[in-house]
Amino acid sequence: MSTIRLLLFTALLALALAYHLYSSSKMTNALFNSPIEQAITARRTYYGLTNKPLPISDADVQKIVEEAIKHTPSSFNTQTSRAVLVLGDKNKQLWDAIWAAQKELLPEAAQAGFKEKFDNAYSSGHGTVVFFEDAEGIKKFIDGSAAFAANIPTWSANTNGIAQYIVWSTLATHGIGANLQHYGQNVAPVQAAIQKFLGVPESWTLVAELPFGVAAGEPGYPGVPKAFNPIEDRVKVVA
């Protein structure tokens, strides 16, 4: 093959490869461009929240929470997930109640760091969604399904996690920042303080809190870009 033909062949091969990469990129973008997929990538953790006016109304936020709890799949349709939407002055009062209980469990040296989070990432926001699981509903399921008894608590946790993710991701698509916390989970004094403040039954077992609001800055920790482990180590395809 002459030098000119070799150069032409190399150029054509490079063009073909470039076109393939371009086409693959367009296809990938098209495949990952539905509203739900956009929500997946929009959801981030914001540690700085403000109480500036939201892009949507409180009624819209309520609807998001209601639809998430209503449509989240649950094992055998048990529907044990619960949520409380806290807004306005009640949001700060909630986090004051949590802090009063949590503070008693912290070493004095750690209190200042935690208080900074409470002041700037939790109570400073517009509101909080508090997630629970109904222990009575779970027990009823366990009592009637001995064969699955060992699995039911895990299935319940899976259901609640899905509900949390739906609310968090949907808020993100509307330009609302949030972060997920677990104060009071398996910590009786803090859980009791939350249950008392919200007026929910003791059978509502605390799972998580999702404080939300207009973000005060970029997501994540300042100056620390979000890193991803190699996807090929995390996803396998068997065909």
How does the SSE layout of this entry go?
Blueprint: H1 3-31, H2 35-42, E1 49-50, H3 58-71, E2 81-87, H4 89-103, H5 108-122, E3 127-134, H6 135-144, H7 152-173, E4 177-178, H8 188-198, E5 204-215
Antiparallel strand pairs: 1-5, 2-3, 3-5, 4-5
Between the first and last Cα atoms, what is the distance in angstroms?
A: 41 Å
Mean pLDDT: 90
State the major sheet.
Answer: 5 strands, antiparallel
User: How do the SSEs run, as a string of H and E?
Assistant: HHEHEHHEHHEHE
Strand-residue proportion: 5-15%
- Low-confidence region ranges: 7-22
The percent of residues in helical segments reads: 40-55%
Query: What value does the Rg take, in angstroms?
Result: 24 Å
Overall morphology: globular
- Tally of alpha and pi helices: 8
Organism: Vanrija pseudolonga
GO biological process, one term: cellular response to oxidative stress
Family: Belongs to the nitroreductase family.
Pfam family, one: Nitroreductase
